[in-house]
Amino acid sequence: xxxxxxxxxxxxxxxxxxxxxxxxxxxxxxxxxxxxxxxxxxxxxxxxxxxxxxxxxxxxxxxxxxxxxxxxxxxxxxxxxxxxxxxxxxxxxxxxxxxxxxxxxxxxxxxxxxxxxxxxxxxxxxxxxxxxxxxxxxxxxxxxxxxxxxxxxxxxxxxxxxxxxxxxxxxxxxxxxxxxxxxxxxxxxxxxxxxxxxxxxxxxxxxxxxxxxxxxxxxxxxxxxxxxxxxxxxxxxxxxxxxxxxxxxxxxxxxxxxxxxxxxxx
Length: 266
Ligand SMILES: [Zn+2]
What we know:
By secondary structure, the chain is of the alpha/beta class. It has helices at residues 5-15, 29-32, 38-50, 79-85, 107-111, 125-131, 148-156, 198-206, 225-238, 251-265, and strands at residues 22-27, 55-59, 68-69, 91-92, 100-104, 135-139, 173-176, 182-185, 211-215, 218-224. The structure holds zinc ion (ZN).
């Protein structure tokens, strides 16, 4: 027997998800184990737990492409996120690579204004959710997948921010809106590597601001968005290179570290 919607609701409540919560969710379907009904059942469990006054936000990101069609281009960030994107009442934010899809009471307000904002930066849906008291739920993944940390990075602006970019993310991209209008979105403050983001998770744990538990088979975490932003900003204030990863083969972090060293030399 696999996990049922009722099981998952029970696990989510035990982790600390409440009725009316606004949740940014990052997940691994594989880590959840066998769920009866698959991704739609997981989504139903999340919707049931936060209730009609709650909000769910998931990344529905896409690689840079010649023509991004907001209503058609599928999410590249997993089956659960694509299930949310296709569900009634869901609103996808208008960004050609870093769109988020939001469901629930405040979906439209949280998803709005994305093209004028930055990818995962100031004014992005993740930022808006955190400002409203939202939480981050990690199902079977850790803070290396926690996009809100990129918002903290954007707020702190370490020396590499907006300077070192991944190939393909440095150019204008074309986005087709639901009414057929085409808009060009410049590459404003695109985020970098998240391989080192578990330093934020460790910091939250040491501050007693990280709830841990199991949902289905998945090791899961729940934290307040505001705490994620504060911990990220504190770590970066101490060390501009705090969020960079240790992989010597990571081109992004190598270049970013040089930026930090250069800034230190003045
Ligand atoms: Zn890296």
